[in-house]
Design a protein that fits this description.
- This protein has a single domain, classed as 3-Layer(aba) Sandwich (Thermophilic metalloprotease-like).
- Helix content is about 45%, strand content about 15%.
- The chain contains eight helices and ten strands.
- It has helices at about 15-30, 45-60, 70-80, 90-100, 125-145, 160-165, 170-185, 195-215; strands at about 35-40, 65-70, 105-110, 150-155, 220-225, 225-230, 240, 245, 250, 260.
- The strands form four sheets. The chain has a four-stranded parallel β-sheet with strand order 2-1-3-4, with helices on both faces. It has a two-stranded antiparallel ribbon with strand order 5-6.
- The N and C termini lie far apart (about 45 Å).
Length: about 260
C-alpha cells in the first residue's frame, strides 16, 4: 500500500490552507458569479478541495463539479488490469469536461500526487495509458492551452511527495515542512494574501512593461564558462503573473508564480 497524508493532515495549518483555497478562487481563477467550476484533485488533497468548493460557492459559483483520483486505485489498474485496457481512456469523461469548458466553466487542478507512483510499474503500460489518456483529453485540453477559459493550478502537500523532498524527517515533520514551503511560495503566509497578490501582479506587470518597451532582439548570458546569446522572435511579447483569458476573465493560471517569460 502507498502512503497517504490523511494521518498527518493535522500538521497542516488550517488557516493557511483556507487562505490558499480562497486565493485559488479569488486570484487564481477570479471565479465569476454564476460561473461553473470543474475541480480535479487527489483524494489525499480532500481537506484543501473541500475548502475550494466552499469558497467557490461563497464567490457565487453556479455548479462546482469535483473529479477525484486515488493512488491505490491507479496502482490497482497497473497491477491487475487486462492488457488491452491500457489502450483505452474514459473519453466520455473528457468529452463532458470539454463541453463544460465550451460553456465557460472554469478549471482548477489541485496537484500533489506521489511523483514516483508508477516507477515500479511496466513502463510500456504506463506509456500506452498516458498516450490513450492524452488523446482522449485533447479536446478539453485545447480549451485550456488556448486560454479560452480562466484556469488555475495549485499544490497540496501530500505525504509521498513530502517524503521525497524531506526524506530524513518523520512523516508529520516532512508534511509540515512541505506545507510551509507551499504556503510561503503561494503567498498565503501573510495576513492579507489577496492584497499581497495584487501588489505582486502589479510588480510583474511593471517588469513585463519594461521588457516589452525595450524591444530586445536577443538575450546575452555571461558567466564562468558561459557566453550564450539567445535571439528573440520578431514581435515577441513578455508576459507574467495575471493574464486575461479569451472569456474576458483575468486570472493567475499558476500559483505560485514569480516569472516573466517570452517565446
Amino acid at each position: 500500500m502507498t502512503t497517504h497524508s490523511r494521518g498527518v493532515a493535522a500538521t497542516i495549518d488550517p488557516v493557511k490552507l483556507d487562505r490558499l483555497a480562497e486565493v485559488a478562487i479569488k486570484v487564481g481563477l477570479q471565479l465569476q458569479p454564476g460561473q461553473d467550476l470543474v475541480v480535479t484533485s487527489s483524494i489525499a488533497a480532500l481537506p484543501l478541495t473541500r475548502r475550494i468548493v466552499e469558497h467557490a460557492y461563497k464567490a457565487g459559483a453556479g455548479l462546482v463539479t469535483p473529479i477525484f483520483n486515488d493512488d491505490e486505485i491507479t496502482l490497482a489498474r497497473f497491477r491487475y488490469g487486462a492488457d488491452a485496457g491500457f489502450d483505452r481512456a474514459a473519453g466520455w469523461l473528457y468529452e463532458g469536461m470539454a463541453k463544460a469548458f465550451a460553456n465557460n466553466a472554469a478549471r482548477l487542478a489541485v496537484r500533489g500526487e506521489d511523483p514516483s507512483l508508477l516507477s515500479a510499474q511496466d513502463p510500456a503500460k504506463v506509456a500506452r495509458a498516458n498516450k490513450a489518456n492524452s488523446m482522449a483529453y485533447q479536446p478539453a485540453l485545447e480549451k485550456i492551452t488556448g486560454f479560452d477559459i480562466n484556469w488555475n493550478i495549485i499544490a497540496y502537500p501530500d505525504l509521498a511527495w513530502a517524503k521525497q523532498v524531506f526524506p530524513g524527517d518523520a512523516d508529520d515533520v516532512a508534511v509540515a515542512k512541505l506545507a510551509d514551503a507551499i504556503f510561503s511560495a503561494s503567498r498565503v503566509d501573510v495576513e492579507d494574501p489577496i492584497a499581497n497578490w495584487k501588489a505582486h501582479n502589479a510588480a510583474l506587470a511593471e517588469r513585463t512593461k519594461w521588457l516589452n518597451g525595450h524591444k530586445f532582439h536577443a538575450l546575452h548570458f555571461t558567466g564562468p564558462g558561459t557566453d550564450l546569446t539567445v535571439g528573440l522572435a520578431e514581435g515577441h511579447e513578455w508576459m507574467g503573473g495575471a493574464s486575461t483569458a479569451k472569456n474576458g476573465v483575468t486570472c493567475n493560471p499558476n500559483i505560485p508564480t514569480e516569472e516573466v517569460f517570452t517565446t
